[in-house]
Amino acid sequence: MSEVRRDIVTDTWVIVETDTSHFPKDHVIEMVSMEDECPFCEGREGLTPNEVYAIRDGSDPNTSGWKVRVIPNKAPILRIEGELTRTGVGVYDRVNGIGANEVIIETPKHTANLFELDEQQIFLILKTYNQRISDLHKDLRFRYVLIYKNHGRLAGASTISHLHSEVIALPATPIRIKQKLSGAKEYYEYKERCIFCDIIQQEIETEERLVYNDPHFVVIAPYASRFPFELLIFPRRHSYTYNDMTDAACKSLALALKKVIRALYKVLDNPPYNLILHNSPNLIPHKDYWLTIKDDFHWHIEVVPRIHRTSGFEWGTGFYINRVAPEFAATKLKEVL
Amino acid sequence: MSEVRRDIVTDTWVIVETDTSHFPKDHVIEMVSMEDECPFCEGREGLTPNEVYAIRDGSDPNTSGWKVRVIPNKAPILRIEGELTRTGVGVYDRVNGIGANEVIIETPKHTANLFELDEQQIFLILKTYNQRISDLHKDLRFRYVLIYKNHGRLAGASTISHLHSEVIALPATPIRIKQKLSGAKEYYEYKERCIFCDIIQQEIETEERLVYNDPHFVVIAPYASRFPFELLIFPRRHSYTYNDMTDAACKSLALALKKVIRALYKVLDNPPYNLILHNSPNLIPHKDYWLTIKDDFHWHIEVVPRIHRTSGFEWGTGFYINRVAPEFAATKLKEVL
Q1: Quick one: which of A11, A14, A91 has its CA closest to B203?
Q2: For B14, which residue in chain A has the nearest alpha carbon?
Q3: Is A121 helix (H, G, I), strand (E, B) or coil?
Q4: B307 and B189 in one domain?
Q5: ipTM, 2 dp
Q6: Which of A294-298, A307-311, B15-19, B308-312 has the highest mean pLDDT?
Q7: A149-176: per-residue pLDDT in tens?
Q8: A113 and A187, same domain (yes or no)
Q9: A94-103, B66-75, B249-258, B292-301 — which one is most confidently predicted on average?
Q10: How far is the alpha carbon of B168 from chain A, nearest alpha carbon, in Å?
Q11: Are B277 and B207 within one domain?
């Protein structure tokens, strides 16, 4: 059970677990492989909640014979049922915790690293992202669907090492997305050009932070990287939504991810990392507000190695200290690509 | 050598190290005690840069006979010399890395936990905070002085376990402070009351998130805690600046810190944590802009246990998931206080 709470000073929203029964000891648990009893492996479908979606060759739901399988999170932080309500608590504000939590199981065989999959399997995972976003956008309570991946304990991964991504549908557009949307909108109002298209063009021209480049996608080490070896993956063609990606582009993205994740693995010795899809919000419930989004926003993927442990400085300021220049990171990655 | 870079999309500033010689391997280094060769221990003053300040009983600088000692950081990320300059880099913006980095060595004897010190020693540390803020505020290039403490590797601490705090003077007010300042200002414009005073009053009345309370200070588990067992320490009397704290109040704060940090140690088994002083910015270089700050801002200390490893969700959204309700955290801490 949870509540979504607003910090009235900084306008930060926090999902707070109000159930006190799972007092965390997660800072002492270490990652275990669990291959022998992994609930995500093919043949153990009975150990998970019933699937909400799967790519199957005609087999029955919740049995073997799937390529990618999507299940509700067994311990969801947000509840799918109910209406959104806002309540005052003295000076504070509270919203009830409405949303969806799903897990995308990315392969039937127990595999821990994305780059070990073949391109066709990664393509199917990326198509599943597409399907879940489209499906969850039909629910007008959900303003934003975030898909992300945690690899390794230091990146917040659970103890299940079997490859999977997380899907969270949220009742509000998160602050970090809002910052990107409004930054992009301001730039567009001033220049009448997409800020991300300009960044892509400059990075292709200067090459110094360009990590990977094909006809559909570019991968760059961003100029103001917050963390060592942080990467951004952009479609080269302007596009505000992940959902209009062609199959050909999706195949390119699968190959780009496989190569780039493998390069990080080699250079940083299997680093913990997060992969985050920053797509546009659900436009159906608020068409007018985002009238210009098709022109000014450009979807992308963040890949964030978590080899730097944030200190009181980052938490105290919102500034970041990055001791590895992105130009150096790009060079290192290109050496192994 | 470093640059301060702005992410033009999100308006996040990043200090980027441009020297590529220290490629980090810090995710594999574990905390070592180093008592035998600790450069912060009394008698090894020759192993550190020359002190910028110390509390001494008449002994010479950079010799034994001190209670608290402040030195420049040996590997500063910002340089103290030079003028602030802003440069365009294609679509990007750059500022050179001007600022001060200091280390406050908090005890002459090798000690790892703040609560092991006596109250008088903690009082001297807190007075040293005061002295460093006042001194650095004289440099009009410095807009904000942040003092913080990293305890344990997961909280970003270095390998030196000897008790110390970090001081960073920055050429701009950080975004997290700005968020707090503007939230406080908006509330004040609407209600003509300090938002923090209202929070303190409500928390004392309801008691459910109140952890500690004396005539000078209150410690609460904030309503929208981002992390399990996050705490805020406020002076009860409205005050926008740490520097007008009386000695009597400072003694109360020393006792409060000792008790609260010990309580966290007991309940969470020596957790990694950050302690962050959120004081008002340097008002001297921009008096007009902060005209109302004396009324609307209220300094405080954040104590943030780092037992939760942030995942792609937090980084992707700026939302936080906290699986321990602050009411529960307050109850647990009060049991051992």
Answers
A1: A91
A2: A320
A3: helix
A4: yes
A5: 0.85
A6: A294-298
A7: 999 988 888 878 899 999 999 888 888 8
A8: no
A9: B249-258
A10: 8
A11: yes
